[in-house]
Amino acid sequence: MDEFKIIITSEEKSEGKGLYIAAIFFLIPTLGLIFSSINNASAGSAIGGFVFFIFTLLLYVLGSFQNKKYKQLGETPLTLIPSYCSIGKKASGSILIGRNKFNKVKVLSLTCWKTSTDSGSTRHDIVWEKIITPNIEFLGSKTTLDFEFTIPEGKKSTDERFTSQNKYHWEIGLEFVEKMDALKRTWKIPVKI
Description:
By secondary structure, this protein is of the alpha+beta class. It has helices at 15-40, 43-73, and strands at residues 6-8, 78-81, 85-86, 90-97, 108-118, 121-132, 135-139, 142-150, 166-178, 181-189, 191-192.
């Protein structure tokens, strides 16, 4: 891989898988409670097993829904040049979409998010946002969205330290509607000073 570029997968790629993993995680106590209720003829264990089973089933259904939404557009890798963005310097990106003559996306968004944790609650606020118009190119059975952008001077760099109360991250995003579904893709991009 070229050291001056990086390929970033979309955040939505792992959403369905994360929900499937959570469903498996909750399936273990569900089976334990059901087994306990059978062995001990315990009504409390049976009710607990039923509640865990419903929650596990809900996570699985949500995971299937997210997976279906992701597969409607498929993999959409973002190639970023250079491999990280420097504040005040121009960067370029290219999003590859595995569809022929895909022209449903007219604009992209470049957003800086601030995640604040205070007294156990978490807030996600937009600090800065800009609309980018991509250049759409059709290459055989694929479509690329090429674009350039600059993170303005005075903006925050990526800071997602575990101990920090205020975390900042940058993302490129797109949205469109297809078959009555609102589809979205976001890619976290590294920004340095």
